[in-house]
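[job 4471] stage=fold_predict status=RUNNING
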Amino acid sequence: MVCRLNTFWREDNREDRCQDVQDIRTRRHSLTESSSRDGVGWASSTVGFWGYTRYDFKTATKLLNVVDSLIRKYNGKLVEIHRLASDSRDLENRLKELGKGVGDVTVGIFLRELRGTWKKADPLPQPLASLASNRLGFTRLRGRDQFERGKILEDLKRIWIENRLKGKGFVNFETALVRIGKDVFRHRKKSSLSYPFPGHSK
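[job 4471] inference complete, writing structure tokens
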């Protein structure tokens, strides 16, 4: 039933996220200046600004390095990365080249949220989404490699077009699949998994 996925829908607030990106540039100078005086202070300021309290000094350093790389290579503008990228895969590679710690998972999540906003944001499904798609009967494939994940993405887009929900987007569908995939992976509530759309059961 559709209510199974509705349980997992997450409302996106892209405007707030875009504002966070803009704030990177306005805060960067003060963070860099303070780093030479008080490492702990700027680390706390960097991660604390967005409310993340579990990240340590090492993570804060990675974040600042990514910001520096973004400013140096793209004048601090994420949209410039998108403009210069030749296609979806090039966009992913450019994002990963921003710095250590920006890998496939990070880029996949980031671009998933921008699907429909950035034309070239078309990441392959995450392993958990592929797992859920297979378990829910949306695809026979398991996402063993990029080719299979690409085919799974095609299947999911087709299913969404045929069964789209009012007020929701494909990104919501993907997010729900990731959450269901976590349940499957952790061996939780296996017996409670249902098949949201008619005609796509096992």
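[job 4471] summary: The mean pLDDT is 76.
[job 4471] exit 0
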